[in-house]
Amino acid sequence: MNGTSPTRMNLLTRRSQLGLAIRGVDLLQKKRDALVREFFGLIHETLKARKDLNEAGKEAHMALLLAKAFEGPREVGTFSLSIPIISDARAELENIWGTRVPRLIVEWPHGITTSPVSVGGRTMAAQVGFRKLSQTLLRVANTESRLRRIGEEIKKTSRRVNALEQAVIPGIQSQIYYIQQVLDQQEQEDIFRLKRIKSKVTTRSA
Q1: What angle do CA 137, 141, 145 make, to 5 degrees?
Q2: Where are the alpha helices (DSSP H) in 114-168?
Q3: How far is the C-alpha of 126 from the C-alpha of 8, rounded, in Å?
Q4: Hey, how many other C-beta atoms are within 10 angstroms of the C-beta on 155?
Q5: Dihedral through CA 134, CA 138, CA 141, CA 147, nearest 10?
Q6: Fewer CB atoms near the end CB (10 Å): N or C, the chain?
Q7: pLDDT tens-digit profile of 137-195?
């Protein structure tokens, strides 16, 4: 059967492989269940982040329109070119059940980045609004990236479970059955031969 030699060593090997495959299925199912729980928790978080992004976008653009209307487009544009956007940015990898999920960490400048004397209150409000919009956009990017990566890992883990349950384990079980049948048949033949030999020896002794 598929080149399987029906020996007791191969029988022990296949039984060991079967045990490993069954334990592998159990571990993969636990991993998939944990990832599914994480996935559904992230759906709620992602929807909330998207809603916050829409609201932050409306507020920021309204603040910008008011700043341009009251303090002039030129002044607002000049101010926007002079302010630092971020202080620092770095990428990190979070480990979730062996799945590496990327996350972007951004450090923002503290407080208002210019003197309130040099610009009007509407412009500073627009700065605060767009800072909030940027932070919310980052949160959306991180949650959606995490959601997508975990979703891919769930599919990958499910394929592994299906492969083990539907192909690997049944194949090993078939090999075990085949080897066991051949060994049992050989054992019966050995017993039959021993009986014949014993019978002949007894006849000659008589």
Answers
A1: 170
A2: 121-163
A3: 79
A4: 11
A5: -140
A6: C
A7: 999 999 998 899 999 999 999 999 999 999 999 999 999 999 998 888 888 877 777 77
The CATH-assigned architecture of domain 8-205 is Orthogonal Bundle (1.10)
Provide the residue ranges of all domains of the chain, joining segments of one domain with +: 8-205
Looking at the DSSP bridge assignments, the partners of residue 88 are 107
Residue 105 β-bridge partners: 90
What's the CA gap between 59 and 64, in Å, rounded? Answer: 9
Give the single-character DSSP code of 167. I
The one-letter code for the residue type at 148 is R
Give pLDDT, residue 111.
56
Q: What whole-number distance in Å separates Cα of residue 42 and Cα of residue 88?
A: 26
Whole-structure pTM value: 0.72
Q: What is the pLDDT of residues 1-12, one digit of tens each?
A: 556 788 889 989
**Mean pLDDT of all residues in 112-137:** 75
Give the per-residue pLDDT at 48.
93
Residue 89 has pLDDT above 60, yes or no: yes
Classify residue 115 by burial, with Cβ atoms within 10 Å: 0-12, 13-18, 19+. exposed
